[in-house]
Amino acid sequence: MGKEKNGEYSMKDRLIKIIESQKEPLMKLNIGREYLQEFILYINFMRKFAQSLIFEGGTALRIIYGLKRFSEDLDFSAPDYPDISLLRKALEQELFLAGYKVEIAEKQKGNLYHLRVKFIGLDELLMLSYGKKLTISLEIDLSPPSGGKTEKSIAGKEVRFRVKHYELSSLFAKKLHAVIFRGYIKGRDFYDLLWYMTKKPPLTPDEELFLNAVAQTHPKELKKVEKMGWEKALMEKILSVNFKKIREDVAPFLENSGEINLLTKETFLDILEKR
After folding, report:
1. Cβ-based neighbour number of residue 146 at 10 Å
2. At 154, phi and psi to the nearest 5?
3. Which regions of the chain does DSSP assign to beta strands (E)?
4. Residue 171 in contact with residue 205, Cβ under 8 Å?
5. Tens of pLDDT, residue by residue, the chain (275 residues)
């Protein structure tokens, strides 16, 4: 997916055209970042060595299921990844051929492998403030909790690719775990949670995967959560969080700014009470 030799048109040219069609700086950033996220996914999933990657998180909901919020990072599980270094090499090669200048940093902390792709030379085009660079992080869990079901879908707007991902009840279970046990409050978690909880027909999380995730990260809490059930555990969390901070965090990522008014304690408690 580099430059077309018979016409001076490239993936980067297409990015420039898309960004210039947007007037608001925030939309330029969101649309431009999403375009590059999809290209990175294309690079990954067109290679045999990446077939063990399982796409997950809010960006998966956005790209595969049409979630109405933008996202920042790309999250994966990879219980059987053959050689993680191949991913960085592929990104460096393909992004260069497509006309991008990037700096890629990597680190591994425990079972989490991080790749941080910084795009150089797009700050003026994206109307970023001085010193800011567009970055897309890839986080890969090399030892995810056991359980969960996967499937494959065709995704992508500008470039099409076949992506392996968790199915919805498994994605719901992983999001539920993040909402209850993440060490900080992330507003986007709660927006995604509302999406899951209002699906029609009603969607239930994969409880086995959820409990396996709890056992992996918070083993001392496992018996308590098993006894309470996920609904009561979630209600306890809902009662403890500051929804003003939740709304402030998610606001820059919403397609429809009016949806911010749905993110209240009362909304979640009402939905839980009716389940």
Report:
1. 12
2. -90, 130
3. 54-56, 74-77, 101-109, 112-120, 134-141, 150-155, 161-166
4. no
5. 444 443 345 778 889 999 999 999 999 999 999 999 999 999 999 887 777 899 999 999 999 999 999 999 999 999 876 677 888 999 999 999 999 999 999 999 988 999 999 999 999 989 888 788 999 999 999 999 999 999 999 999 988 999 999 999 999 999 999 999 999 999 999 999 999 999 999 999 999 999 999 999 999 999 999 999 999 999 999 999 999 999 999 999 999 999 999 999 999 999 999 88
Euclidean distance between CA atoms 241 and 103, whole angstroms: 37
DSSP-based three-state secondary structure for 148: coil
Tokens matching residue 129: 């403030």
Could you give the dihedral angle defined by the CA atoms of residues 170, 150, 68 and 266, in that order, rounded to the nearest 10 degrees? -10
Domains and CATH numbers, the chain: 1-166 (3.10.450.620), 168-275 (no CATH)
Q: How many residues does the chain have?
A: 275
Look at the alpha carbons of 52, 53, 57, 60 in this order and tell me if their dihedral is positive or negative.
negative
